[in-house]
Design a protein that fits this description.
Blueprint: H1 5-8, E1 13-14, E2 18-22, H2 28-35, H3 38-44, H4 52-61, E3 69-75, E4 81-91, E5 96-103, H5 113-129, E6 133-139, H6 143-151, E7 155-166, E8 169-179, H7 180-187, E9 197-198
Parallel strand pairs: 5-6
Antiparallel strand pairs: 1-2, 1-9, 2-3, 3-4, 4-5, 6-8, 7-8
Helix pairs in contact: 2-4
């Protein structure tokens, strides 16, 4: 059985280049701006355009969610908001959950930032929460994201045909998952650290 208290804690996790902090109202404007970016919306398959008020309300409610994690991705050097990620749809009996990540702008891709953020979250999911399996869906045209997921141990399980209709074209989505043993095999411990650092680890 997984530790649900680890979902209620809303941790801060630190890596070399990014840190993950609880998503809150202070991140609303940066998150709102990312939802207006056409390429970000295409990669996420988001047709709807949200208002700032809707985004602000959603961010403000994240801390009260007892069964999921929503974290902002912050650059270590400069404190820029890079995006956000979620661990959700937690099945406590089967020790599984779903994962999503969105970087705020294309300029943040291709630098390993999403991969490091994913690694930090998976380390927490497997080691602290006690999950066995984490899954996600990614559009087949998003080759950069697929490569990053593979590097973290994710494997393709299936294909959802014509899952997205975007500007008149239909695109498949890939279903991917990573088991704890896959993650350990792919990543091993953090060099020189032995795991993701949380705020609790450092008082």
């Amino acid at each position: 059985m997984i530790d649900m208290s680890a979902l209620r804690e809303k941790p801060t996790l630190s890596g070399d280049h990014v840190r993950l902090v609880p998503l809150a109202e202070e991140h609303a404007e940066a998150l709102y701006e990312s939802t207006q970016d056409p390429e970000t919306r295409r990669l996420m398959g988001t047709h709807r355009i949200f208002t700032l008020g809707e985004v602000r309300e959603w961010c403000a409610e994240r801390a009260a969610q007892p069964d999921r994690l929503d974290l902002a991705i912050i650059e270590q050097a400069g404190d820029r908001h890079l995006g956000e990620l979620s661990l959700m749809d937690v099945d406590r009996y089967n020790e599984s959950a779903a994962y999503r990540i969105a970087l705020s702008a294309i300029e943040f891709t291709g630098r390993g930032l999403g991969r490091e953020a994913t690694r930090l979250l998976l380390e927490y999911a497997f080691e602290r929460i006690g999950l066995h399996r984490v899954s996600l869906e990614v559009y087949a045209f998003n080759m950069r994201a697929i490569a990053a997921y593979r590097a973290c141990g994710f494997a393709v399980e299936g294909r959802l045909r014509d899952a997205l209709l975007w500007e008149g074209r239909r695109h498949d989505a890939l279903v991917m998952s990573v088991l704890e043993r896959d993650f350990r095999r792919a990543m091993g411990p953090f060099p020189g650290r032995g795991g993701a650092r949380s705020a609790a680890d450092h008082g």
